[in-house]
Amino acid sequence: MFKLLKPLYFTRRFFSALISIALLFFLSYWFTVLFTIAAMLFYALLVLVIIDIAALFRVKGFFAERLLPDKFSNSDDNVVMLNFENGYNFKIQFQVIDEIPVQFQKRDFLKTLQVDAKKQKSYDYQLKPTQRGEYYFGNLNCYVSSPFNLTKRRYKFQNEQMVKVYPSFIQMKKYDFLALDRQSRDFGMKKIRRIGHSMEFEQIKEYVKGDDIRDINWKSTAKHNQLMVNQFQDEKSQPIYNIIDKGRVMKMPFEQLSLLDYAINSALAFSNIALKKNDKVGMLTYSNTIDNFRKAQSRLSQINVLSEALYNIKTDFKVSDFGLLYAHLKRKVTQRSLIFLFTNFEHISALERQLPYLKAISRQHVLVVIFFENTELDQLIHTETEDLQSIYQKTIATDFAYNKRLMVKELEKNSIQAILTKPKNLSINTINKYLEIKARGLL
Fold it and tell me: How many angstroms separate the CA atoms of 111 and 109, rounded?
């Protein structure tokens, strides 16, 4: 009997009624007539409580479930759906407490809902993860109130439900659309002017306004008595590698995401576009060791291979070994490739220590070094100085920003392509650089 009533809870209304009756009993010490009234009210409350308990515990009349997507997209809003079914013969009011994964640090989830008799109801909410990995939900707790709202019955559903948080596939799909759409430049994509042709001949077609007059085929024009042009297509299956530094420099957070997460999101978004353009895409991660090497492949399923490899990667707080990286590339990547190196340097001296290895890599491949502006310093740089301390802080911040620009010049002086970007603009700038390199035929 007691085991059956274990999930029984009394409501505030019950305790308010009980306290009121207790006060009447207390006052009846001086007023005898109040004792009879208090006793009658107490027995009436007891009868109502028994009716409530019987109504709630006679059958298991409530069901709830949490519906999760197959995977969450990191740094995006993800929908969690809750479904409820009322099997009782009366309308119920209930409270929902969902035990959200600890990574969100959210312990105030409490919703009050109602469902009519023999009806169903759905409710959804959104979660925005800022870390990749496995997320575990706890119990879905539902406290169903009785008809008189004097007692509640607790129901528990779906403990230890797990969902994996992957790099931002929502962002990947968004940039896939922008890169292929003619209006993509309205959203930040550059319109790249094709400079030369490392192109494959495709066909001869009629000239239309906008075609390059340098592609006119004069023999075919004379034969057909109208302007004809050669049509080219991009050379296919060029190897491209995303190299992601997972050393301690990539742990720095901006707007709740680490630089490593920005790099991973960008690498997937850019790789998806490259695969759609029939290029081969591979990757590796490194710090003081080489991990997750994936040879460049052109099949579309490669994006799933990269996503699986990247979804649970974390920084290891080690100093990254660029010499080891160079040796690995020389041994494993023998074909000339386009290499996007996601890393970060905070001072030009840090770049100068690694510059010999970067120069060695760039002699064999087209190397693009991607590093980050420290946007946290922008406010200091643009703040009006009022005292000696603020002047000192602004001077240091300006020096850091100047060092970043010096690094770009140093890389370009050594024939190494560079992207200095704000973390939030990383994906769009990486895609632009890829399209530019393709248009210029640098591979």
Answer: 7
User: What pTM was computed for the model?
Assistant: 0.74
With beta carbons less than 8 A apart as the criterion, state whether 89 and 65 touch. no
CA distance 380 to 395: 9
Element (H, E) at 439: helix 426-440
Phi, psi of 320, deg, nearest 5: -75, 135
d(CA 105, CA 109): 11
- Residues 323 and 355: their CA atoms lie apart, in Å, by 10
Calculate the alpha carbon distances from 369 to 92, 103, 122, 280 in Å. Answer: 61, 32, 48, 19
Q: Residues, the chain, total?
A: 443
Separation CA 365–CA 79 (nearest Å): 42
For residue 287, which of 263, 253, 257, 306 has the smallest C-alpha distance? 263
pLDDT digits (tens, 9 = 90+) for 317-355: 889 999 999 999 999 999 999 999 999 998 889 999 999
Kind of pairing, strands 366-372 and 338-342? Answer: parallel
Question: Crossing angle, helix 259-276 and helix 302-310, to 10 degrees?
Answer: 170
- pLDDT > 90: percent of the chain: 40
Residue 375 burial (CB count, 10 A): 13
